[in-house]
């Protein structure tokens, strides 16, 4: 048996598939302030009188991250960029709390300008003064050479030990710098709340003695194991939300 759920704008729907056919459906009103309640309500109705040990797989579709971004409920975050020559982040709309660091890696992964470590320490002090506890750090060609992101991350971590730092090369290996910067920022600002949701969901299913693997529906129609999705919550959102304003 397979279970699929979808959080819609009006109702949260769930379906039970058995032997390739729809065996049962359930629907519950969507409460956008409590998506967990909607999902579990639909699930509880669906598995009533069902032998849960026969459930093989559960697929969840949630708008949690989309809603957080659209409604401005994401956590405050500082964005640190190492763009190198040829890019001017000041010309683009990535928010007010953006710091540009000196240093450069070229498209072949060669260091052509050393990271200014003194500047990184100065920025860490500014970030601390503004009260940020989350930082997204992205270098233009860091996916080909991580050295600047790693070093800057180490400096920030030493200066601000309670700060969560998300490094761009760990979020995406794509060459599109603006998109990777946006993706890293959104990952850092949503990861904590998404992790709470994923852990709560796994715990709730365990309490219901449902041991089937749980998958999250990705924006491209694929699925991702829920434990893996914790590191990449933006995989669940619509691609248009990842579009940066850079040319």
Folded structure, characterized:
Helix 3 crosses helix 4. The chain is of the alpha/beta class and 247 residues long. It has seven helices and twelve strands. The N and C termini lie far apart (47 Å). It folds into two domains: 120 residues, ATPase, nucleotide binding domain (Nucleotidyltransferase, domain 5); 112 residues, Rossmann fold, CATH 3.40.50. The strands form three sheets. Strands 3-2-1-4-11-12 form a six-stranded mixed beta sheet. The chain has a four-stranded parallel beta sheet with strand order 6-5-9-10, with helices on both faces. A two-stranded antiparallel sheet has the order 7-8.
Mean pLDDT: 84
Class derived from helix and strand content: alpha/beta
Number of domains: 2
Fraction in beta strands: 15-25%
What order do the SSEs take from the amino end to the carboxyl end, as H and E? EEEHEHEEEEHEHEHHEEH
Largest sheet: 6 strands, mixed
What is the general shape? elongated
Can you tell me the residue ranges where pLDDT is under 50 for at least 5 consecutive residues?
239-247
Proportion in helices: 25-40%
End-to-end distance: 47 Å
Q: Briefly, what CATH class of the largest domain?
A: Alpha Beta
Q: Strands of the largest sheet, in order across it?
A: 3-2-1-4-11-12
Task: Give the CATH superfamily of the largest domain.
Answer: ATPase, nucleotide binding domain
Number of separate strands: 12
CATH topology of the largest domain: Nucleotidyltransferase, domain 5
Please tell me how large the radius of gyration is.
21 Å
Sum this structure up briefly.
The chain is of the alpha/beta class and 247 residues long. Helices cover 34% and strands 23% of the residues.
